[in-house]
Amino acid sequence: MASRKKPRASSSAGSAGTPPAEPPVASASVEPTEGGATGRYIVTFREGSEKNAVSLMNKSAGIQAVARASDFDESAVNLESVESADALVFDELGIAVVRTPPDSLNALTAAAADADENPILAIEPELIMEALQDVPEEPPAGGPGFSLSYLRGYRDAVVHLYEQLSGGLGAEQIGAGAAMSDTDLATWGLAATKALGSRFSGRGVRVAVLDTGLDLQHPDFVGRAVTSQSFIPDEEVQDRHGHGTHCIGTACGPQRPTAGRRYGIAHQAQIFAGKVLRNNGKGPDSSILAGINWAVANGCQVISMSLGLQAPASLAYEQAARRGLAAGCLLIAAAGNDSRRSQNLIRPVSRAANCQSILAVAAVDPRFQVANFSNRGTAVAGGQVDIAGPGVDVFSSAPMPQRGKVLSGTSMATPHVAGIAALWVEARQVTGAALFQVLTSSARRLGALSVDVGAGLVQAP
Amino acid sequence: MAKRDGKVRVLITIDDEHLNDIDRLVKACEKAGLEVESSLESIGTITGAIDPDKLDELSRVPGVAGVEREGEYDVGPPDSDLQ
């Protein structure tokens, strides 16, 4: 047992117990106007048309001073320091926040509509969003702001209405396309999450996977930086179950595996393999918490937990996750596989994913529909599903001599999110609560209900 | 999960004010009857086992934010397709 571990001395993101750093939400310094708007506007660019859009904003709306998020250290934009700018461009997201009088905005809208290929997809008023830690279930009494849960509820109601009026066409049908499948190059999950085309590798990022361990002799992990520790008495890290090797494969597997298609995302991340489940697949809270403690003490920015238990939210996990966020460590956990939707059995999000400060991951299938087994979010604080990952027919590494195999579960969706989280840490230098925000705000919207898939399918930078 | 000696395994969450005082809190929990297994400083948790009759006393120790029974997770046997 890793008892009496000292927190990492070099942890600079604040000591445990201090609140997480404010996420980069563009609202802090502006007084809200009518309807919870800030008086600024969000301009969404067409993909690849960013230069044209910025040029159009300049010519038609007189927007001249443009600040770029990527110019800031750690991409942590301080809005007060860009007060003088007319526009702030978030390169990674393909959006800009602009401050301009309504009449010049109208000129921009008109000019955009006249362009041969409109470089601007949408112009919307910027609304007030609450910081992650403080999202109330209901809008504040008397206040104009809309809480995130209110907005999601509104969206669900609209989808529900569509379902009713369209003659029973399932809500999950919206946006459903042809089924994706693995290619010779890579798994469907890597393609669907854009991890395959990402130029980021998780280099320098520490990813802890708390599971059944790792096949330390697997040829796909030869030469990788692996730190390992068992929190199971009398069992070595060596994975004799297969679950841990599969999950680590998805999160951190190689760019070029020794055989077959690519299945791993953060191929240059440092792997921290914590064994918290026995070789029979079972493990107690005390081992899992010891694993979390080890990962936080080692400064792992990403902690992946493909495990769940149908039980109420636990104070111990919530506090551990909150203290992890304060130290720059994001806990990501599986929503759980207890549902059988085809039989109308839908169960709530499992412990530990049902904590407010833990990112809860649902599973979708290759048609982007919620998986039959994937649990649903509840109205209880923290009981929500936050995001979805590929979790049906997932190929990844298996202990030798099997080398690789296909599995399904929210356990498989979770390391997709963890690996992609490592890419975001590298790309944007964000950790903790800000990383939570980046993951959910960059997710791809799905037709499925947000109680089932949260913000949508995780997307790589 | 009960142990053979009748003790129950518990997770003790330390409140924010006592995070830097975990060693003293471990001693206070021992005094209240806790058989300490580990103290996890980075996350502010103590794990151990205790006689069920002493749970109330343990939860009243200053600095203890909560006492919970330990649960066990199960990802299924190795040959299961659903994980």
Please give a structural write-up:
The complex is a heterodimer of chains A (461) and B (83). By secondary structure, chain A is of the alpha/beta class. Helices cover 25% and strands 16% of the residues of chain A. Chain A has 10 helices and 15 strands. Chain A has a 7-stranded parallel beta sheet with strand order 7-8-6-10-11-12-13, sandwiched between helices. In chain A, strands 2-3-4-1-5 form a 5-stranded mixed beta sheet. The longest helix of chain A has 19 residues, at 410-428. Chain A is globular and about 70 Å long. The two termini of chain A are 37 Å apart. In chain A, 52% of the residues are buried. Chain B is α+β, with helices and mostly antiparallel strands and 83 residues long. In chain B, 18% of the residues lie in helices and 34% in strands. Chain B is built from 2 helices and 5 strands; from the N terminus they run βαββαββ. Chain B has helices spanning 22-31, 55-59; strands at 8-14, 35-40, 45-50, 64-69, 72-74. The two termini of chain B are 23 Å apart. At the A-B interface, β9, α6 and α7 of A face β1, β2, β4 and β5 of B.
Features:
heterodimer, A: 461 residues, alpha/beta, five-stranded mixed β-sheet, 10 helices, 15 strands, 25% helix, globular, disordered N terminus, B: 83 residues, alpha+beta, four-stranded antiparallel β-sheet, 2 helices, 18% helix
